[in-house]
Design a protein that fits this description.
The protein is mostly helical. Helix content is about 65%, strand content about 0%. The chain has two domains: about 150 residues, Alpha Horseshoe (Serine Threonine Protein Phosphatase 5, Tetratricopeptide repeat); about 70 residues, no CATH class. The chain contains twelve helices and no strands.
Length: about 240
């Protein structure tokens, strides 16, 4: 079983799709209204109007507009795709503490898009976003610790970040945490915990986790499987009310 990493951009998909709709109101009420107007323009496919409004607010220092402007450049919606300029605007928003921008900037550095690939910088930005509770940043940072990219390899740290992301429902982190428990990396080897996290991820439709459950059952007693299923069911029900 291998650690998996698939998170990309602030919506967790391989490409930007609906990330533009993520925003946190900040600043004065007038700025919030203007940001909402820009978001409405974007949702109605009025990309040029949205870009104009985001750009005006971004130059005024609004981090929400800076973040969304970065997404427009990164997605090439209404404007030519330009990851370098996307990185510039993500950085401006990230410095203001915008967690989604910090995460996306980390993604750019990890993948060398618009910037020179720099795993250390990626880890630093993921950590900033992760400390603010961004589950995808926590998950990606866990992968960097597992692989020793940009940070000293540390399975315990990887497990800690996977745990934080998994508790928030990040399926990839749930799967990866299950692997660490199965292999005893950074945590005490625990087949019950491993199966439980695989099962939680499987309940969200993760095919890899479903296959892992079937494989792991061959290593477990019937009592362990029952215990794991009960734990997974309780967690899933508590987080999906």
């Amino acid at each position: 079983m291998n650690i998996r990493k698939e998170s990309f951009w602030s919506n967790g998909n391989t490409f930007i799709v609906s990330s533009i709709f993520f925003f946190l109101f900040s600043g004065c009420h007038t700025a919030n209204v203007n940001v909402q107007e820009a978001l409405n323009d974007y949702s109605n496919n009025h990309y040029h109007a949205a870009f104009s409004k985001f750009a005006r607010l971004a130059h005024q220092g609004n981090d929400t507009a800076q973040f969304n402007l970065g997404l427009m450049y990164a997605g090439g919606k209404g404007i030519p795709l330009d990851n370098a300029t996307a990185a510039l605007w993500f950085r401006k928003a990230a410095v203001h503490g915008n967690a989604a921008a910090q995460f996306n900037l980390g993604v750019l550095y990890e993948n060398g898009r618009g910037v020179i690939r720099d795993y250390t910088a990626a880890a630093q930005w993921y950590e900033k976003a992760g400390e603010q509770g961004d589950a995808e940043a926590q998950s990606n940072l866990g992968v960097l610790y597992e692989n020793g990219r940009g940070v000293v390899q540390d399975y315990a740290a990887a497990a800690g970040w996977f745990q934080k992301a998994a508790e928030q429902g990040a399926v990839i982190a749930q799967f990866n945490l299950g692997i660490l428990y199965h292999e005893g990396l950074g945590v005490t080897k625990d087949l019950v915990q491993a199966y439980s996290w695989f099962n939680v991820a499987a309940r969200s439709g993760d095919v890899g986790a479903q296959k892992s459950c079937l494989l792991l059952e061959k290593e477990m007693t019937s009592a362990q499987i029952v215990q794991s299923l009960s734990s997974a069911r309780e967690w899933f029900e508590a987080h999906h009310k």
